[in-house]
Amino acid sequence: MALPYRRFLVLGLDGGTFDLLDPLMAAGELPFLKSLIHRGIRAPLRSVYPAKTIPAWYSFATGKDPGELGIFGFTEPDGVPGGSKLVQTFRPAEAFWDKLSRVGVKVGVLNFPFRNPYPLHGFVLPGMYPGPPVTYPAGLHEEIVDTIGGEYPPELPVYRDVERDAWIAQATRAVEQRAKVAATLAERHKPGFLFALFRETDRLGHQFWHEMSRPAAEMPPSLLEFWRTVDRACGEVDRAFRSDASPSVTLVISDHGLGPIQSDFLTNRWLAEHNFLVFRGGQDTSRRRLLGRLLLYTQKVAVGRRVMRPLVDFVRDGRRAKLAEFVGGSTSFEKFSGRIDWRRTVAFSHPVPEGIYLNPNNPDLTPERAEAIRTEIRQKLEAYPDAYVEVLDPATIYRGHNLAHAPALLIRVDGMGTEPRMDFGYPSPLIRERPEYFCGTGTHRMNGILIASGDGIRAGSTVGTLDLVDVAPTILDGMGFDLPPEMEDRSFGGKLGIPG
What we know:
This protein has 500 residues and is α/β, with parallel strands linked by helices. The protein has two domains: 7-260 and 444-496, Alkaline Phosphatase, subunit A (3-Layer(aba) Sandwich), CATH 3.40.720.10; 263-439, no CATH class. Helix content is 38%, strand content 17%. The strands form five sheets. The protein has an eight-stranded mixed sheet, sandwiched between helices. Helix 8 packs antiparallel against helix 9 (221-241). The longest helix is centred in the middle third of the chain and has 26 residues, at 164-189. The protein is globular, with a radius of gyration of 23 Å. The protein starts with 6 loop residues before the first strand and ends with a helix.
């Protein structure tokens, strides 16, 4: 029996960017994604800011921006000076698939980044957070184990250079397994809406941008095979979803883009240099800064880079964390927070690295002084001579004003080519040649991807930049359901050829 609505499949490529996909498609390495574009359309998809996995995917799911959700990163303040806690979920906001479930559409949500599932008309398999996922319904776990012969793939572990080949192989195998689970459940349960996320595209993009952005003929074979596997995985899930031949649309989207990175901006180091952040009794971070100078020197010397890689692997081994900290000093903001004079400090950066927070524990920070501090920080950062620093006011860049956990200011450095960091690990705020073996060679950009193909999509249409936060109303509209008042007039379905 024909369904009274158009079905939607959404495939998420975390960190997906046309900067990587286009050369691979041109080289014939991604035949499915290339055919999807040939049959449909493509467009840049503008992320939210900060363009981070959690606020971005949560904005996609709810149609609400970070200012409406009150979610600006992976973590949020917990009320203790220097403390934070993990963001667990976008709830109590409602995802658009909750609305679909409520009107009788069977939905499936696979590998979405939240910790706990919840009852709906369909199935949910959370992803990204550590530990075995709890499924809804509970019996879904057995289906998954039967499908792939074991547990659903966890998030990739921390990268270690000595394990490079095994790490890439693990990522490639995880993509295969996620696709097999999604395809099997699509054929078995025939959901009207299905979301399946591949997180590995982001993790490898961060670590290996400089290698993956080479021409296909020069890309390391293991990385090229990873992207071929991603393409096959998308095709496998698409074919399974379309197996009952009912009208349907496939969207391939990303939460943000990726691009090269070479520089870091240590916001807390800058705040300390300008006396916005003050250490108790004159304590500073001299031992760690000395090590930072050594690390920066080794980056410039070939033999130094070779020596540092095994040492970095040593540090990343959690069993040796205390020894590494004893030798080199701590780097994290949390470790240094006990040295900060919280009664004199007026501003700091934590827990969102793009954010600058005013200190609620400073008894002298009256509303008038707080506004003066905001203005002074903005002026000094915008005049910073060594980098282009944009200073953004959360109250002006978001529609919503659920800003209790928001930073006082947000910064964007060198168009996101320089990454803000919260630690005190180096001798100056701006590190133009960062040790790539610590943090990889790729970082986030605002423009992600949207590829759309299927029933009603106008093949070959030219579409300008679209907004990630408007995907939710577009799907509801495209399936023929009324939009909630807050989503009215935000669907871009008409630009694709799929008005409700």
